[in-house]
Amino acid sequence: MRRYAGVIVLILITLTAQSVLIVRRANPGFVPLMDDAYYYFQIGRNIAEGRGATFDGEHPTNGYHPLWMGFVVLSYRLFPGDPTAPIIFLQYIGLLFFLGTLLILAHILFRITNRPWLVTTLLALYLINPFVIHFPSDGLETALAVFLFAAF
What residues contact residue 51 under an 8 Å CB cut-off, 6+ apart? Predict the structure, then answer.
C-alpha cells in the first residue's frame, strides 16, 4: 500500500481539481463543453423520452459510441426535464473512468518498475498534459474509451 501512496495523492488531487472544474463550469441551464457532446445529449434525451435514436426527432442516427450513449440515456432518465443535472452526472461518470484509467496505468507502470517515485512522476506528467486534462469532463466518450483501451 505504501508504494501506491503517491498514486493515491495524485488521484485525490485529480478528483478535487476535476470536481471544482465541473462545479464551477456548471451554470443554470448551460454547461460549456465540446460541441460534439451536445449531439450526444440531444440523441440521449430523445432516446430517454421514447423518440428513438434521432437528433432532430425525424431522422434516425447511429453515429455514436453505444456504451457511452447508454450512460447518456441513463442520465436523462435519472434527471428528466433538468437541463444541467444529466450533463454534470455524465461528467462525474467520465471522472470515474478517468480515475480508473489512472489506477490501471499505475498498475502497468509498477509492473515495469518498482520505483514509486518514478510511477508517480510519470502519472503526474500524464495528468498535466493539456489534452488529458479535459478527458474526464468533455461530455464525450473519451474517458470511457481511454479506460477501455488501458484495461485491455
Answer: 57
* pLDDT per residue as tens, the chain (152 positions): 678 888 889 889 888 888 887 777 776 666 667 778 889 999 999 999 999 999 988 899 988 899 999 999 999 999 998 888 998 899 999 999 999 999 999 999 999 999 999 999 999 999 888 888 888 888 899 999 999 999 98
Residue 34 phi, psi dihedral angles, 5° rounding: -60, 140
User: Which residues lie below 8 Å from residue 71, measured CB to CB, with a gap of 6+?
Assistant: 90, 93, 144
* pTM of the entire predicted model: 0.87
